Amino acid sequence: MSDQQHVYPVSDAIAQRAWADRETYQAMYQHSLDDPESFWKEQAKRLEWITPPTRIKNTSFSRDNVDIRWFEDGELNVAANCLDRHLETRGDQTAIIWEGDDPNEAKHVTYRELYERTNQLANALKELGIGKGDTVTLYMPMIPEAAIAMLACARIGAVHSVVFGGFSPDAVAQRVIGADSRLVITADESVRGGKHVPLKDNVDAALTRKGTEVCQHVMVVKRTGGDIDWQQGRDLWFHEAVDKQSTECPAEAMNAEDPLFILYTSGSTGAPKGLKHTTGGYLTYAAMTHQYVFDYQEGDIYWCTADVGWVTGHSYIVYGPLANGATTLMFEGVPSYPTHGRLGEVVDKHKVNILYTAPTAVRALMAHGDKVMETSSRESLRLLGSVGEPINPEAWEWFHRVIGNGRCPLVDTWWQTETGGIMIAPLPGATDLKPGSATKPFFGIKPALVDNEGQELEGATEGNLVILDSWPGQARSIWGDHERFVQTYFSTYDGMYFTGDGCRRDEDGYYWITGRVDDVLNVSGHRMGTAEIESSLVAHTAVAEAAVVGFPHDIKGQGIYIYVTLNDGIEPSDELKKELSLWVRKDIGPIASPDVIQWAPGLPKTRSGKIMRRILRKIAANECDGLGDTSTLADPSVVDELIEHRANK
Ligand code: WTA
To answer: Which amino acids does the record list as binding CoA (predicted)?
Structure first.
């Protein structure tokens, strides 16, 4: 299929009103590469600095000395940038539109209200002895208090670590320990799709785990009024701690390189790692990308459907939009509840202009046919965005034609937790669209494709995606383990940031992300390490060995396929499959639920004992004809056995 068949050119009308048309993009992009210092010095002015930076870029990707600093002599406060500076001009403007899980529940929070509530919480945190450099774990529903908690931490210089509300108690415990958090902020329960999730119970369970003693307090937002246990002295109600506080709280002056947050994400090996993001560069980059990629214009209503537990929620629900004085919609529920028309109905109800969502949500709706959009007109929409995983051209076209009524540009945005903000994406007024392609690099981004030896490949080709130079939004380190940061991202190809993604570049210089080239799965846009799931499985007494791979899944993008070798004397059964499935759900969280479990009397291994995942992936994908060379296996017969008993028929 030729890429040329499906090009959606930029319309003149959009180019005229956009922040960047073709010429502007070209000129600014060239400037950003030729002279990053002056480019980013200028861009930093979009923020309000207590001390404006004079030293702009001081970065090294060399594997002997990975050191990344932006604006390093500048001082600022992120909360003041997201709140205080808007008070005069837009104090009464809605900052957050909150849409509840129940379609009858919604509220508007103005910039002034957000400012006051943030200050009150900041004062309450100080009363608990939390201050600059302390870490706070947030395990919250999608309610305004989640944004307030993030901003309150930023205001006093505390570092937040948001843990996705779908994770298990063990995952919470691991992250409380990893970040050394003295406080957890949570809610009694969260509500999604009509179901209640016992957040506070999960925190209680997490804090019984060894090593979590550092956590002295649990602050609880009353969301549902559901039944919870209470530990006197440790637990406190959010409203009781906060209501009594002053609505003024001075914003701490932070160095541009002071940490703003930690966010855990999965890698190909070991436990999830806490990426460290800092203050000045991160906010500059989040704000700038939000403005240009979504072409955010004054007065627009903007909706990103992500959860604040993921980086997309950090950069494009909270920090980017609020830094730009935008109105950002925060949705507590799921697009399929109470009916599949909900997404469009929320767009109509709040007159949403910009809708940023994930391919998996689009595919789930698409599976129900065009009729799911009949309950809404979506006339307010002007722009669509996609993130989290490759979007297949069919889903792209459906998103564009049905949800967007065929008249809204669709920006497919490629980026990662590590990158802090969008890296490769079209600009609506500048880039012709090709369904399935994230198109062109953002300002300051130098992508390249390399072969497995790190040789740069030129022209139209396919390879491993690397980034050749630093940009302000990138993570600076892994919390408490800089060596692991260097190992993970800078040691594969010296002097380059390795993304872990494969990518194709076409003859027009457009980038097409092909998916992970490492052992990371992307299930419904959620990142998961196969190693994490495997280590959960082998902790079960019945399991001798386990290998986890991804396989193509119509809705989720990738599904989780598990091969399990049982211990001697253990009989395989459907009950045991169910038990193992529940085990993983309980250990990691529902997002890690296995799709397929296959009993594997043996796993294909090399003579040195390494599992050949390439073969397991092929079998899971039912591509058994193209297994390639199996002669290097210690016991090639296990492959025939696995093919014969494929579970995913
Ligand atoms: C994948 C989410 C193709 C990719 C912001 C990346 C994508 C990983 C896209 C990061 C996209 C994200 N097209 N693939 N538009 N966006 N990915 O850290 O494999 O949760 O490495 O960040 O998701 O996932 P993460």
So the answer is: 192-195, 312, 524, 585
